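Sample A.
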Amino acid sequence: MATQPVQNRNALYHIFKQTALYEKMLRWAWLQETRIREEEKRIFTREAREQFGKGAPHGSFADYKEALRRHRVTYQEYMYGYEYWKLDEAARDAFISRSEMQCIYRKIVTREVRQTFRNKTAFLERFAPFVHREWRMADRCSMEEFRSFVEAHDVIAKPLDGTCGEGIFKICANEVQDWEALYARCRDQHLLLEECVRACEPIEQLHPASLNTIRVVTLSQGDKFTVFGALLRMGAGGSVIDNTHAGGVFAPINPETGCIDTPAIDAHNHRYECHPDTDVPIVGFTIPYWEQIVETCRKAAQVMPDLRFAGWDLCPLADGRIELIEGNHAPDFDGGLQAPLKVGVKQKLKESAEEIFGINVLELIKPTSQTYNHYEGML
């Protein structure tokens, strides 16, 4: 009987798709995508003009504009991420840019998935079986509850809708000087408070100040599942977060073996065979509990059968449990999956998506009016 509401909803949706209103909404979605494309072009061109005006190390502004027109790449992707400046057109076409991936995500990721993954508390509640740490919302705590929680654990405070590690900070009870001011700050900013967890020793020793995590990018639909790629993310410079935007480094993981076979890289294309701070070897490092990590991702993906894409951030803990830290419904392909090896994954993406989803996702990138039917995810 539980399937009856779903069947009724699907029947109503099928009827709605035959209406003029539905056609108008698809037209609106197509116009929105066109506006996004034009705004990207304006912003990316301005940034590149500024950088080339300062004396960019390689390439030319004219060549960048051609790469932007064909592949929607940012200046960072052109200069550092994929080094487009030294590639011919065939080699460039092997990569898929961040903007192209975002275009795909906008068209096929459902509203339910977006809403769940964008809201950190909604995510923690939906995927509770894979979250072992305690957490609280600061604006749902009294002053006494707030202080009790912080005194029981070191705490990481996060904005609910933050990205790229922005706005995250660590709270240690023995360092708090004004409890009322701290509580007011966390409450008024509606911060999420999470118990600090410790990674297993091999992961922790890479950079002890941060929780170093494993990002696993998966494609799934129904009972179909594959690990598309994975990377180890490590903090650097004493930062409490491992995000590359905060100076972190990352290294691709071989999905078949769980081993790191190539040097790590940072946002500026510097390469590291050992961690720049701790000198712990990165090349040859084997991710502990790799099979359990993959199985955790598989089970988590089954929570939302229409998930399609996900970037799971996980960490094996000291007691062997696998902790799900966060999830991303629109994971970047530009960083850990293409930049370290300077190898494009566009064809691999096409083949994997056809196997899992049954569609050619590269068709979703094309800005043609004939693809109205590809815009349902934006409604």
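Sample B, a different protein:
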Amino acid sequence: MNLHEYQAKELFEEYDLPVSRRGIISEKDQIQEALESINFSNGCVAKVQAHTGGRGKVGGVKLCKTIEDVQQFVDQWLGKRIKTIQTDENGLPVNVISVEELTDVDKELYLSLVIDRGAKCVSIILSEAGGMNIEEVAEKTPEKILKAELNSNFKISSDQISLFARNLAFNKTQESEFKHIVENCCKIFKDKDLSLLEINPLVITRAGALHCLDAKLNIDENALFRQEQIAEKRDASQEDSREFEAKQNDLSYVALDGNIGCMVNGAGLAMGTMDTIKLYDGEPANFLDVGGTATKERVSSAFKLILSDKNVKGILINIFGGIVRCDLIAEGIIEAIKEINVEIPIVVRLQGNQSNLGKRLLNESGLNVIGEDSLQLAAKKIVDLVK
């Protein structure tokens, strides 16, 4: 789960991290109130709040000197959609705009904490090249990337912090501020079950102070049950509507660009099913795992979810009955087809627990469902049918 920048900065404030004062605008009549909450004497920075990077490159971040500038920015963006290199062609809705006090920047740095699967720990990454795409920095100038691993208590040694500080030529005051920022970032990462914390840029002001000019936080979805206050901040408008609906129904769903809908139980089997579709020159429209304990209701919800994608021209259902019973899967399929007017081909492969009963239910339903016993035949059949 992602947070908006302004939400991440609210969390930073709870941990005494230096961020700019800001006002929030979600309605056009809130402009005056938002500007009164900050020091607007020299202007402000207006920022579109959306779950995407590259906002500044498409006009989503603007220096505003007057109230009229802010009004124009709000009129341009609020209630509209923003498209960047990180979004699809539809972009993301803009429901909130923040206005922040100006910061007199001398130098931009990069700081992040991320789950490092290779090192099997949380790593801290730092660079003197802030305000840029860190992947590009790592590729072109890897010598500018500094990295260290946190220990099992999500802490970093004072010696390592001092080493970072020397590499970045911090003075004693800046080193103390840096230590405070890093240690509290580590606390946030642990306390809030984060998978990513990124400050890009972390700046040195002309007065010599360190300041978090940007903030990006990703929260582990599997830990939201113990992060209720953060879960309440979720902005469903920033997510694929189908993926959000899937989460509400305890389904694992990822939208793809193909035209063959997939419904499978088990992530490994789902990956194998998509690979087999690709083997026969087909294109999967989604990853959808109904889980090892799929119920009739969950299967019905999954079926409707697949059919909500207008690009889907056919559906392949591949179920291996272990814990889950194939007859319950079949009942869910029948219920969904009867409820929705389905005019596209459906190929079903059922194997395992109560598969014979499941196949019989499908055969006796009178519905236009094609059954196959092998995954290869099922995949080839649905690919041929959607051509």
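Observation for Sample B: The radius of gyration is 25 Å.
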